[in-house]
Amino acid sequence: MRPGGGSLVRWAVYPALVYSLVFFAMPFLVMVAVSFWQRLRGRLEATWTLANYEKLVSKDYLLEALVNSVEVTVLTTAVSVLIAYPLAYVLAYRVSARWQKILLVGAIIPFWTAYVVRAYAWLIVLSENGIVNAGLLSLGIIDLPLDLAYTRGATVLGFVHFFTMLLTLTIFASLIQIPEHYRMAASDLGASPIRVFLVITLPLSLPGVAVGAFLTFVITIGDYITPQILGGNTEVLIPQAIMLQIARAANFPMASVMSVSLMLVILAVYLASARYLRMDRI
Amino acid sequence: MTGRIAAFIVERSYLVLAMAFIYLPVIVLVLFSFQDGVLPVPPFDGPSLRWYDKLLGNERVLSALGNSVLVAVVSAFVTTVLGYLAAYGLSRSPPRFPGVARFLLIAPITVSYLIIGMGLLTTFNVLGIAKSLLAVGIGHVVINLPLAFAIIYSQMNESHRNIDAAAHDLGAGDLRTMLQISVPMMRVPLLAAFCLSATLSWDEFIIAFLLSRFEVTLPVIIFEMLRAGLTPEVNAAGTIVFAISLIVILSAAVALLARRKEPA
Predict the structure, then answer these.
(1) How confident is the model at residue B132 (pLDDT cuts 50, 70, 90)?
(2) Do B14 and A86 touch (CB under 8 A)?
(3) Inter-chain CB proximity A30 and B40 less than 8 Å
(4) What is the ipTM of this complex?
(5) Residue A44: its chain B contacts at CB < 8 A?
(6) Domain residue limits at A207
(7) Residue A174: which CATH number?
(8) According to the model, what pLDDT value does residue B264 have?
(9) C-alpha span between B46 and B36 (Å, rounded)
(10) A 158-217 near B (Cβ less than 8 A)
(11) Shortest CA distance to A72 belongs to which of A261, A211, A216?
């Protein structure tokens, strides 16, 4: 008999599988189905139609929300990587072991700040009488407070703050796995520090960048709170558009169309980056 | 030589600036929760506990706090049990399609919480199931299960299977082997999975917002308070949520480190 071949062992995996099927896969399929339904006299009718998808493409504000979301997300991901990479590099190679431990723990603690108030905290920093404006005014650098809050820049800043922490960790994890003698061998053979970085360190750390950037993309593009609090009324992103459909009109077919479109964007990004991600290795 | 000194200065300055950037909102949030005035902006005129007083005198906030703890503990427990069973089964007796099973268990991590919440909301709406704390808990198990499974699965290895076999040879049944041998051996990853799931549920907003109605959780109440604009009361609420998450995570970390030092 194989060790642990009893029925309990054989069936142990199924509760979680059934749970995922019922509460993850099935609801997603229901949502896809509802995206082809119609809402008549306040009730859902299972009449199969493409009208909702036509509306998504023909109504400028819906397509615009999708475009805005992709722009904000790409900008957030790029800026976060640019800020996090040097930080991860310094932490991995340029500080003593003791400081490395202290700084890593230090970089993780703000992760647990309450999610709903993280964006709000930036509002305090950026508002008309907030920290930044008060500081600049008292230093005499500006005469009138700057409009920092309620802009796309504020939304991106709120996102970048959180994902700088996340990306620093994923990139750091990649960097410390690169054997030190690879870099030493390269410089012994006469490569300049910049060449060592470009030929050895950077390519070998790309998996950490890819995983972090993918998580940044997925979480940012689906986030409602940050643009809602920091973005003001200047533009609408796709999660806000979805919530509007639900809150104002209980329009499930339109909300489903937008959720499915959002999912398709995420899927496209996943497929494009799948070979760097190796999600199955988690 | 001067090049090295310059590089050192640039590195240290970057480190200080980046850490300042990471900590700025945390410091602002906590500091102005002790503000005495009505706005959480400079100048700081505290410290005062008046906003904590006001917050904790609010019945709705207190009941939401209780709801949040309940959802976090129950959903984290269910998540950990499901994740453990799946990891146990997959590592000992893989089903016919182990790749498909692992994909299905991990997949929710690649999907936005908003989409998971919308899927559940739409389904409950079609089926005529009312919103409730139970619905919120169901959603939280969905989002946390991949993480719990991954943490526990990554700690199961060949030696665990051999110890199972030894237990079987000595006459222990499946259930006894699992409860008396495997679970105690896995207590560290189990505790880690539980604490992580609990803090993520405790702090989760969008699914709780979509799937709850009369009984709500703390992040939903805080979001309602945000609509009134800047107030130190929100800082106080945020600081409490942060402090409780930190206490859970740090005590788990301390427990894990203490156990690691014990002789095996």
Answers:
(1) very high
(2) yes
(3) no
(4) 0.88
(5) 125-126
(6) 59-281
(7) 1.10.3720.10
(8) 43
(9) 5
(10) 161, 164-165, 214
(11) A216
